[in-house]
Structures are given as C-alpha cells and as structure tokens.
Design goal:
Luciferase, domain 3, nine-stranded mixed beta sheet, 575 residues, GMP Synthetase, Chain A, domain 3, eight-stranded mixed beta sheet
C-alpha cells in the first residue's frame, strides 16, 4: 500500500531518488558563487549583490563575528525583515559554526523574551528601530550583546534617500547601555583577520544550522532544530519540481523566520544560482508593481497573500507570462481561491497554476506538492523524492486503508533534529517505527487516495469535546466558508470550566450588514449549519467581526479569540 509509493507514477521526468550533497549551507552557496560569480544573487530596494560580492560580504561578516567572540555552537537570534543582512548573517554564522535563530520583527517583548529563553541566545542581531523591544525583553536571559542594524543602509541609493525623509526610519532615541552595539560601522572596517579556515573543521553536515519557531497556534512556540543537511536536501528536492534548478528570480515575500521563506524562498534559489528579490513587507499593490517591473519566474506565498492579490484590480491587467512556478503553502488553500487565481493567471498569459503543497516546520516546511501532470482539487499533492508518507491510526503506527482518514506521518531527509532543549516534546512527534525509520507524527488528519495523492482535513490537536463527542472546528469552518456571504470564519469552544462546551463561530462577511439585519443573518447561517452538520457540530452562537487576530505567520489566532471570550465571561461574572 503506502510502501509501494503509488505517487511515483506521477513524477514524470523527476527522479524518485537523489544523491544529496554533503557540507554546510555556506559551502553550498560558495560553490554556487564559484560557478556563477557575476550573476545577481539578491536584490533589495534598488541594491543588487552579485555572487562574488555576496561571498566576500559573508566572509567579512563571519570574520567580524569571530572578532566579537561569537564561536561555534553559539546561538544568535536574528530579528530583521527580509533584507541583505539576513542572508549575510545566516550564512556567516553558518560558516563559523554558530546557529542562527530567526524570529518575527513584530514580536512583542514578551514573545521575544520567550524565544531568547528557549534558544539560549547570547547574541542578537536586530534592526536599530527595535532596540527598545529588546531592552525590555533581554532581562533574565543569557544575552550579552544586541547588535543593531540600520536597514536603510541595505537599500539602493534612491530608496535610501527616500527613506531619509520618512520619520518612521529615523532613530529618535539611541540606547545608552553598552549591551547595544551598532553593527554597520563594525563591518565597514577591514577585518583584522580572516575567519577560521573551513578545511580545519569537522564535517558539519548533520549539525544544527538554524532554529525556527513553530507558529504557536497549538501552544507555546517550540524551537525546531534544522540541520545543514535538511536545508540542502530541501533545495535539491524543490529543484526537481519544474525548472528551479536552472536558477531564475524568486520573489521572496515570505519572511525569513518562516521555514518556507528561509528554506524555499532564500536558500533554494541561492543553492541553484537564482536571484532572491527580497521584499521586507507584504503590500498587495506594491507586490503587483514588483511583478510587473522585475518579472520573477517563481513566487510562493500563503493563501491569504493570494486572496489579497486577487483584490487588486491592476493584478488582473499585467503580463504574468514570466511565471514558471507559483506555490502555496503554510495553511489550507480554499478551492475558490485556487480557481480564481488559476483564472487570473490564464487571463494574464501564464500557463502555470497555483500549486498547493504541504509541510510543517518540523519537516522544514515543503515535503509534498501537486505534480504538474495532474491537478486534483482539494489535494495537497504527492511526496517529494525520498519522502515517504502514510496514514495511520492516531497515536499508533498502524496504517489505515487507502481512502480512510487518519494521522499523516512523514519520513525523509528534511525532518528536524528535534525540539531544542525539549526531549519530551521531541519524543511525542518523532517515533522510530517497526521498519527502523524515524517518522514524524504530524498531528494532522488526512487521507491518501489510490493514486497516492494526499488530502489534508484538519489538525488533530484542535479538537473540542461536545457532549463527550469529538468536534473539529476546522470542519465547521470549512462548511461556513462555502456560504456565499462568508469571507472567513473561526470556530472555538466556549463555556465555563465546570460547564459543557458549546461552539461559537466568529464570521467575517464579504459585505457588512446593518445592526438591524444581523439577527436575520445569524439565523440564516445557523440554519445553514443545521442543514449540513450533525447536531453536536453546529455552532450555538455566531458573532460578526471585521477582522481576526493573527499569529506571526498569518494564521487566525484562535487562542486569542478564546482568551477574549474568557475575559468577557470573567467580567460578566464580576459585574
């Protein structure tokens, strides 16, 4: 059944097995630079860096880091938007053997404090404008030095001049503590010595290269250790999906703290000699202008990003024939979004489709993708080369027959090393099965059809007991989202701790209704659920909202909605 890998019949020209390179992420990019020294490695707001200069700058950053006392096995937190210094720092740390841990620049001081305690960083690299956040966050951590990067100095001269007139880029107060050191002046100086020669180092292929954090939607974010081997293997696997191994320009909007962003949108193009077009923040209209001007071949995003682009009128008028691959991951892609985007691509001259994939940070994101030879609506595709997948009874390694739903399990070359400093949590998800292989138990419920295509249904961890029966909110949301008036929904369990739970649905409508019409719309949606769901899966209450709180990776923060309801109940009880 699963061991027969029926999905191989849809590989086309792609190989089923790859010979994976040894060495570090830095060594892989250095080989690319030796092969394509004059090619543009990355672009950022008018600044272009060729591969030969990229390696020279990485080496300079590495030399300065060693001079600052950063050594092999140190963990350094990077908190920056997509900009050249992210690339330079990640690969410089990789060269000297330090571990990079990328986090979201919009993180709160409380969240940053948690990250720093978890990854045990002694050093931080962040934007100068964020220094006050870190002043609040570093107390009680191991941080010795916070290096401040002036992001405006990363830009091309036109953008730099323009930024100088904008108040938001001006540093009003400067830190007085010696803990805070400005990085740009340090690396402008000529380093006194070169970094430690690489030939004197042991093989670091299997060493941890990067610590990424989970999105936090199922509890406190955990530090996920990813090896040099997993990053390079991912680049090789993605290289089999189309023409990405031939280089080309990748529009890199997904952030560097996201495994999809760092692994697929940054390291993969640099591995193959492509160009990384760095976008510091997503703005739909600006993205349309960039596509029109830069004409990238490749583009990846989360479903919300593609929904936003479809709402920009000019997107439907530009030439999109440049695209060779457009990929979606990070969350479930609604069929209506896939169809609308496919229609927009065809209308604007592109022969590709929006290809949905599947992965988790624990597998360095992408490990499945829809093949070009056959599109199956609702499917998350088929496994990459050397990735095996199966559906098992939840909490066991017992396979479930084809077509039946169970837990998705994965094994392959990109699995995480484990959760940093959390062996108990690691044992919960990484199991050695009777076949001798280590499998990742994803906690996601799905199925496989007879062709070997997989389907994601819902996250097992997000389950609510109603009258002793299991209800999965994502199933209710999936139904609500099919209603013609519903733009987005989120369902949670509400009720006092000592009382039975019931479901409450929060809904964003495509068109707002007036307060006097809201009761009728609620009744309509409740009847809609009653017509299509078992009684205990129907929401008992519906609330309309204009927006949802989001996690740092753009998913609906349902736990924040739960906290809001708990606070409201507490206030009502005290009044």
């Amino acid at each position: 059944m699963y061991e027969d890998k029926p999905w191989l019949a849809f590989y086309g020209k792609a190989p089923s097995h790859l010979e994976y390179v040894r060495g570090t992420m830095y060594e892989a990019v250095k080989r690319t630079a030796e092969k394509f020294p004059e090619k543009i490695a990355c672009e950022f707001l008018g600044r272009k860096i060729r591969y030969r200069n990229l390696i020279r700058l990485i080496d300079r950053y590495a030399a300065q880091m060693e001079k600052e006392g950063i050594t092999e096995d140190d963990c350094v937190t990077i908190c920056l938007p997509n900009c050249p210094s992210v690339i330079l720092m990640v690969y410089a740390m990789n060269k000297i053997g330090a571990v990079a841990s990328t986090i979201h620049p919009l993180s709160t001081p409380r969240e940053i404090h948690h990250y720093l305690l978890t990854n045990r960083s002694a050093y931080v690299m962040t934007a100068d404008l964020l220094w006050k956040k870190f002043e609040q966050a570093i107390d009680g951590t191991r941080v010795k030095t916070v290096y401040l990067v002036k992001v405006t100095e990363e830009m091309g001269w036109r953008a730099r001049i323009g930024a100088s007139f904008l108040p938001r880029f001006r540093l009003k107060d400067r830190p007085q503590s010696k803990t805070f050191v400005f990085w740009n002046p340090l690396v402008r100086r000529k380093p006194v010595s070169l970094p430690t020669p690489q030939e004197n180092r042991k093989d670091r292929t299997e060493n941890c290269a990067v610590i990424l954090f989970s999105g936090g939607t199922t509890g406190e974010p955990k530090g996920i250790m990813c090896s040099n081997f997993s990053f390079n293997a991912l680049a090789q696997q993605v290289g089999t999906q189309g023409d990405t191994e031939k280089g080309g320009k990748m529009l890199t909007i997904l952030p560097n703290f996201h495994g999809f962003g760092l692994g697929v949108c940054i390291h993969m193009p640099l591995f193959w000699g492509g160009t990384v077009i760095l976008v510091p923040n997503f703005d739909p209209r600006n993205t349309v202008r960039l596509i029109k001007k830069k004409r990238p071949e490749y583009f990846a995003g989360v479903p919300k990003l593609f929904d936003s682009l479809l709402k920009v009128k000019s997107f439907h008028r530009i030439d999109l024939s440049c695209f060779k691959g457009v990929y979606c991951g990070g969350d479930s892609l609604q069929e209506k979004t896939e169809k609308a985007f496919a229609q927009a691509l065809r209308k604007c001259g592109s022969e590709v489709r929006l290809m949905e994939g599947y992965g988790l940070t624990e597998s360095l994101t992408a490990c499945m993708l829809m093949p070009r030879s056959l599109i199956k609506p609702g499917s998350i595709g088929i496994p990459f080369p050397d990735v095996s997948a199966k559906i098992v009874e939840p909490g066991t390694e017992k396979p479930i027959p084809v077509g039946q739903e169970g837990e998705i399990c994965l094994t392959g070359p990109t699995l995480m090393i484990g959760y940093y400093n959390n062996p108990e949590a690691t044992k919960e998800v990484l199991w050695q099965h009777s076949d001798g292989q280590v499998w990742l138990h994803t906690g996601d419920i799905g199925k496989m059809d007879s062709d070997g295509f997989f389907y994601f249904r819902y996250r097992q961890k997000r389950m609510i007991k109603i009258a002793g029966l299991a209800v999965y909110p994502s199933q209710v949301e999936e139904l609500l989202n099919t209603h013609p008036d519903v733009l987005e929904s989120c369902v949670i369990g509400v009720g006092k701790p000592d009382e039975p739970k019931q479901l409450k649905a929060f809904i964003i409508l495509k068109k707002n209704v007036t307060p006097e019409l809201e009761p009728a719309k609620r009744e309509e949606l409740l009847r809609f659920c009653g017509d299509h769901l078992i009684k205990w899966s129907c929401p008992k209450e519906i609330a309309f909202r204009k927006e949802f709180p989001k996690t740092l990776v753009g998913k609906v923060a349902y736990r924040e909605l739960e906290r809001e309801e708990q606070n409201r109940d507490a206030e009502n009880a005290s009044s």
